Amino acid sequence: MTKKIKGIEERSFEKLPLGDIKPRGWLKKQLQIQANGLTGHLDEFWPDLKENRWLGGDREGWERGPYYADGLLPLAYILEDPDLIKKAKKWVQAFTDYQREDGWIGPVRGQREDRKEYDPWPNFVVLKVLKQYYEVSEDKAVLETMMNFCGFLHNKLDEQPLFEWGKFRWGDMVLVVHWLYELTGETWLLDLASKLKKQGYDWSGHFNNFQYEGKQPSDERKLETHVVNNAMGIKNPAVWYRQSSKQENRDAVYSALRNLDKFHGQVTGVFTGDEHLAGKDPSRGTELCAVVEYMYSLERAVSILGDPLFGDRLERIAYNALPATFKPDMWAHQYDQQANQVLCNISDKDWTNGPDANIFGLAPNFGCCTANMHQGWPKLVSHMFMKSEPSNISAVAYGPSEVNTEVNGTSVKITEVTNYPFSDKISFKVEPESPTRFTFSLRIPGWSNRAKIAVDGDELEASSGSFYELERRWAENEEIELILDNEKKLERRSYGSVAVKRGPLVFSKPIEEEWKLVGGEPPHGDWEVYPNEEWNYGLFKKSLEEPKLETNKINEKVFSPENPPMEMTVKGGAVKDWNLKNNRAGPIPNSPAIVNADVELKLIPYGATNLRVTEFPLLVDNTGTNSNDE
Q: What pTM did the predictor assign?
């Protein structure tokens, strides 16, 4: 049990202020691709932002402006891009200028007439934006804006309790309320947090007593089965645990991962929801909003609970599901991605979204993902290192980066040199301004059977699924090397299929593709993507035991099927009677017959694919015998 601070539990790790962590290497290039793509230019031409009511226009005026700012602002300050910072400040100014004397921020109602007045949900996101801005500015006026809204909400909830989206997303507001409480010591803020929790949906009960164990019938679509609500809801029990101190709230976070994996999980670490929970079939989709919100939930969970398991899952989603849902130049995105994604076209599919949800475009299906997708990469960077008392710096998620912070009054810089997750080796250079004692903790992933840490000529063994603490007096320019055991592993999936993993990466067979512009204009057009080759392959079990692995030079666009960073060569066979069904890959045959055996297949990282097969029929030999016959 962690100790109490002013009536709430202390976090295991504290997030560092925005801007203290910077990306390097391929990760910096990825954020620059994002800045040069939709994130950096969307507000210049998309009417829902350019003419948004938050900016004095007549469009939308609900969640899309705040969503966009919630990703734009951290990207701008992490890259120290003056043009993006100017754009981000425009939104911050709009939020603060739009506050009324009573504390309400923004339009009373969005553009749609069916929206209720005084819907607080968009303001939950506004306060997340203002919190990040305060981290880089310490602007007292912004803090005053936040406190005034909290005061308004405290009173308003008595006459108009939470409803619709805000009822299910109360955790986003409570985490900011707790932050404000720690900053100001105003005890009424804890009363506001209690009110939000009481009026909100019971996510702890939802996950601890999970009722949604299969694909939901169309007449049972409801907000508690909505994929994004579940992705956001994962963090709510952890957020509330800080105030409740109840074990059931801690337990619910683990129940969430376990039950969503069991009944709806995908090999990339996400769960299906196109638009509602949809089972384990690899041809069912996952909404992009759910991907970035799941990442944020994990970032908050690891901060509060301190379990390295959440860092493992965060990396699996970030390095697979996140990049795969974008065009490599990040000028287009999908609403829904699939693990077995063999065709992306405008067509009715047996899911609960529209016919264009699977294409790569500007705003397929709904514009929520167009507005919300921007937080994924920058928030990953801003949570890669964290601190804890009394003197601890922890590497929570890995990737080329550097952190500049202060420990015991001494400035410390730690540089992480690596091509991870495309490399097994991670090197750290620790540079304190002057010799000082502190603990540097390294997350040892649960998937690594063995991990070796080299420091000061010593080679140390570290247990998987833990934080390894290096407590010492650090001098200038000390180096640490972490080598992880990234052996290939097979994961059994639905219909007796198999998926191939190595470390945090999932490997897929890319499908030769043809892009067809069907709307808009480049670079922010709408594209269907068609296969130019057969995709219905199974993998031979023996070939998977010792696959050939090649590591390539990191390309300018690391997540692209052209010159991928890694390739795995395996043997497979074309499978009879595995065909398209409803414009998607049909169910994987349980007893596949082989049409063409001993075909050499190249597998590449899932995140580098646009069309792909990820869950394969598993073939024991070249006679057509499958794994279920053993």
A: 0.97
